Amino acid sequence: MGGDRGPAVVVAGLSKSAAQFPDVDFLLHGNETELRTYLARHADLNGRVRIVHAERVVTMSDKPSQVMRHGEGTSMWSTIDSIKDGHAQAAVSCGNTGALMAVSMIRLRKIKGVNRPAIACLWPSRSPGGFNVMLDVGAGIEAEAEDLLQFATMGASYARNGLALSQPRVGLLNVGTEEHKGRAELKVAHDRIAAAADVGGFDFVGFVEGGDIPSGRVDVIVTDGFTGNIALKTGEGTAKLISDFMREAFNAGLLSKFAALLALNSLKRLQRRIDPRRVNGGVFLGLNGTVVKSHGSADETGVAAAIGLAIKLARSGFVERLAARIASTGQTGQDLGKEGATSTAQGDGKNE
Amino acid sequence: MGGDRGPAVVVAGLSKSAAQFPDVDFLLHGNETELRTYLARHADLNGRVRIVHAERVVTMSDKPSQVMRHGEGTSMWSTIDSIKDGHAQAAVSCGNTGALMAVSMIRLRKIKGVNRPAIACLWPSRSPGGFNVMLDVGAGIEAEAEDLLQFATMGASYARNGLALSQPRVGLLNVGTEEHKGRAELKVAHDRIAAAADVGGFDFVGFVEGGDIPSGRVDVIVTDGFTGNIALKTGEGTAKLISDFMREAFNAGLLSKFAALLALNSLKRLQRRIDPRRVNGGVFLGLNGTVVKSHGSADETGVAAAIGLAIKLARSGFVERLAARIASTGQTGQDLGKEGATSTAQGDGKNE
Asked: Of B108, B130, B151, which residue sits at a domain end?
């Protein structure tokens, strides 16, 4: 029921996904009467969607703390509960991010050993797969060294299962790549992540800068939720500015318009590579369940991308693999914390 | 002597500036023998440049703290001292940013009332003038509420003198525009900046997000040096990624290349609007002297832009105006801090 464009777009996105994944069934949470109207337009969804009626809706302006206390009976709450109750294997929402995280936290609970969940996004990049992972982009607004270590582990796990990278390269976001730069907690996190790389199944490339986020030298960028959210929105805003300027440039006169026509294929090829709809879907990491947050302004292509991502992660058994990885690195982290020793533990041999 | 491309490019940029500003003379700090070689190629600079010999050079990898203690005799130190001694009215350097800030701090000292200097950058935007100001982008790595208030005052002053905006619109960078969002110090800063807007001669638009940095709804974006630096480099990295992808798209096949030829004017028009060289120059704010940091990788066009910015600010009497503004808002800030009262003081009537 959430999102800036309302449920009609969600149902249209659902229809796109249903065509792509013929063996997946869907639960659609919200006002039954309203949803029936939209479903009626999509005969292809007949028999594949079950409506779970919910009386109330979480709005974009509701405070997360309020929704956490009084959110029962909303479509968001019902969606998360369907994972908790085992009726669904993954959840997708276009609604209020803070509220979705709050409801997910209290209904699904954190994975044992996780202190702070994170939201991971995909970023168009020069890496061979075309995308990098960045986290946290907004679950919290701060992170201690221990949290950043867990983000590294969780982000690497996501990259393995979501991007099929067997040994992801992890970088820690800072204002310079030299080891003496940045805040104190980053220096501590730097050393702990380096020590945990073996057990975590990733390579640690050290500090990376803002300019490296879309680069090919790293697959997973680790940062706190405040910085990550600012970076994500700055990147989106810059891309939007350039594409607007590009449109204006190609509309300035007859020759430009003619050139644009000829260049249509090139421009489309470019558009595909940086299309934000293709990378739609912030994944909640560290919870006992797969929750994907679609951008509030997503159109049906964006919604379908978020649903596809949720399906992919659910099928890979991602949450169980992540929990196992957290359990093993958590042990290393504790050893380090207590004894200040450099870990010599090796990977656990699982292909997670 | 600094910068990634060495002094030849600096001298070439100087030559460009000299043509643009026929009534300005220059002091060139560094190794006299080496600099003479480069100057010999530019007959136009005859009689307009005086070399100030410096034996040593600060490298890009030197630690700021070391340079601060042992930097005497370097070209960087000599450059800053030429402002201190009144031989120059503004300084430009392509060198090590941290070292430049450290040397500027101890040689020029902070303006009375300023707790933390800041580096301000220009950002291509949808604002009528085509640029927004953002600060701090890397002088420090953190900022208290009081510092953010001073950044607002200094950024507004810079926008008035550098962008000719009589009443700049100031926004505070956060992860959401709602007042309950973000870190505790941001909420305090929000209220203090709002209360100081009248005296500071700016309009406060409240919290802004990363996506607003290139927008037309704000002229000055205030944030701490860590976040600002990440945002700046993320924006630059994203713009670079898109322009690389664009080049690849237009090189993929004969028709695309032909289209690119036809679209050349449009592409050039686009390039001009987002050309990072046009906005080259991080201005140090809060010091008793005008120091402009050019990007280390700047070419001659970039160097000339940084020199032009320094000349413009020196001519406007910017440092004196800023000092006056800090004195009046500092008073307001203290009142607020001590009595928790909302300021009712009005502007000081000066046209700063």
From this structure: B108
